[in-house]
């Protein structure tokens, strides 16, 4: 199984003999047997298991085995007598012979551990079987399209990575084609903020921040996007369903979790460190919106309300809208209590699609007596996993957007802490990502 690293080790237990020749024969037999029978299991980006059809030769054993006698299978050999005495040349045998503990001694052969490290910037996972020959150390090229974590890739056909001045900025391919539009989703590397001895691109005024560093990080991000002339319009985010409309730069950050404008020169932005950032574009009326959707905002349908604001103010048709859902904590990592699941079930008929198991804590437990707790003292129900990105995608569809007009990043902030910030995984001591969108000055 290929996960963040690929590990393979084998254990062979046999009987000790007085002869090194027998040891070498067994090893060689072991090698032949593995060559014929070994099948390597892997997992592609969609968690489908597939196998190599033929591995070919294993990487070779130490050189002395190659000059040994012809190989036989280990079960062709018998050791006589049954209770053999320790060998006289003990230095050539297993260390247990030194202790004279027993006549039958387990020989342990462990093939070398090998590791394939992170694979990133890959586009499509393979969908068919293919052979891999292990006649040497593994080459990362053999696994070029297998991801280090399922469904978590920095770039795909719907996404591009813009690198500038040490920064790595994610952009939706469909939005990047619009000449009058500027947009981007920031990542962790390339800043001047110091977090745990590492220089990071923190774009939020967190407790540990140095204000001048955050302002420099923001300047660098705008410069990398070619948006130096645009005025950054941030929000004081409160996990609400409040949508602000900007006709001019605000004198101070407004309270809310979404903003919209059709005025050139304004750069809308939302900050995230696990929550879902959503950027909306109306190419017909040249209007844009930026949305911050945590579980509370998602429950209150903030992305739907942002679309409603664009309809009322700019005459936007949902069918014309383009939407990009940026990196957020995935359904693989985002645990919430069953009370949250209960709230979602009360608001959305399709809420069960967004949870790994929609448990609300009200399910009957016919075996309560097994936990040895008195009535009224039952343990709390286990948490459930919520896919916020999927929930917001569903709300966009319900609002009238076409499937082909919605792109979703499959990067999980909790899984990819090398590239992104995660509030949950770092217990609150972390930076902030920023998602920006604006209309260029004519």
Q: What features would you describe in this structure?
A:
It contains nine helices and 22 strands. It has a six-stranded mixed sheet. The chain has a four-stranded mixed sheet with strand order 7-22-15-10, with no helix packed on it. Strands 1-4 form a two-stranded antiparallel sheet. By secondary structure, the protein is of the alpha+beta class.
Helix and strand topology:
Layout: E1 11-15, H1 20-37, E2 41-43, E3 49-51, H2 63-66, H3 96-99, E4 106-110, E5 159-164, E6 167-172, H4 173-176, E7 181-185, E8 193-195, E9 198-200, H5 211-225, E10 231-233, E11 235-236, E12 243-245, E13 254-255, E14 258-261, E15 266-272, E16 276-282, E17 287-293, H6 295-299, H7 302-314, E18 322-325, E19 335-336, H8 338-347, E20 384-385, H9 388-399, E21 406-408, E22 433-439
Tell me the total number of β-strands.
Answer: 22
CATH class type of the largest domain: Alpha Beta
Helix content: 10-25%
| The CATH superfamily title of the largest domain | CNF1/YfiH-like putative cysteine hydrolases
| pLDDT < 50 stretches | 1-19, 36-80, 89-153
- Spatial arrangement of strands, main beta sheet: 12-14-17-16-18-21
Enumerate how many helices there are, as a single number: 9
- Which class best fits the helix and strand makeup? alpha+beta
Distance from N terminus to C terminus (CA atoms, Å) equals 53 Å
- Cα-atom radius of gyration: 29 Å
The average pLDDT value, as a whole number, equals: 75
**Quaternary:** single chain
Question: What gross morphology would you assign?
Answer: globular
Examine the secondary-structure arrangement and name the CATH architecture of the largest domain.
4-Layer Sandwich
Number of domains: 2
What is the strand content? 15-25%
């Amino acid at each position: 199984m290929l996960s963040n690293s690929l590990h393979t080790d084998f254990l062979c237990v046999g009987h000790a003999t007085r002869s090194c020749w027998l040891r070498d024969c067994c090893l060689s037999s072991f090698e032949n047997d593995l060559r014929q029978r070994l099948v390597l299991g892997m997992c592609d980006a969609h968690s489908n298991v597939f196998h190599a059809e033929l591995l070919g030769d294993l990487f070779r054993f130490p050189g002395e085995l190659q000059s040994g006698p012809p190989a036989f299978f280990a079960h062709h050999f018998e050791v006589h007598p049954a209770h053999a005495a320790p060998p006289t040349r003990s230095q050539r045998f297993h260390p247990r012979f030194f202790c004279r503990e027993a006549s039958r001694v387990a020989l342990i052969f462990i093939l070398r551990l090998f590791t394939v490290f992170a694979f990133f910037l890959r586009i499509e996972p393979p969908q068919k079987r293919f052979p891999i020959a292990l006649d040497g150390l593994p080459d990362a090229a053999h696994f070029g399209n297998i991801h280090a974590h399922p469904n978590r890739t920095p770039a795909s056909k719907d996404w591009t990575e813009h690198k500038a001045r040490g920064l790595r900025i994610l952009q939706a391919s469909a939005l990047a084609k619009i000449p009058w539009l500027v947009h981007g989703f920031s990542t962790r590397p390339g800043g001047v903020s110091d977090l745990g001895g590492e220089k990071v691109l923190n774009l939020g005024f967190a407790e540990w921040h140095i204000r001048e560093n955050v302002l420099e990080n923001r300047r660098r991000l705008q410069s990398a996007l070619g948006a130096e002339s645009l005025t950054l319009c941030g929000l004081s985010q409160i996990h609400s369903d409040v949508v602000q409309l900007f006709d001019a730069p605000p004198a101070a950050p407004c309270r809310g979790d979404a903003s919209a404008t059709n005025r050139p020169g304004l750069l809308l932005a939302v900050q995230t460190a696990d929550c879902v950032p959503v950027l909306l574009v109306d190419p017909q009326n040249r209007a844009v919106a930026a949305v911050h959707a945590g579980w509370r905002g998602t429950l209150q349908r903030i992305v739907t309300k942002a679309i409603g604001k664009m309809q009322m103010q700019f005459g936007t048709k949902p069918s014309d809208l383009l939407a990009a859902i940026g990196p957020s904590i995935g359904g693989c990592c985002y645990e919430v209590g069953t009370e949250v699941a209960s709230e979602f079930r009360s608001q959305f008929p399709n809420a069960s699609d967004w949870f790994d198991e929609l448990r609300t804590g009200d399910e009957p437990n016919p075996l309560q007596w097994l936990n040895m707790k008195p009535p009224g003292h039952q343990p709390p129900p286990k948490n459930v996993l919520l896919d916020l990105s999927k929930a917001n995608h569903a709300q966009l569809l319900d609002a009238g957007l076409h499937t082909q007009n919605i792109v979703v990043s499959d990067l999980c902030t909790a899984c990819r802490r090398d590239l992104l910030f995660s509030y949950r995984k770092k217990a609150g001591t972390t930076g902030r990502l920023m998602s920006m969108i604006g209309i260029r000055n004519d």
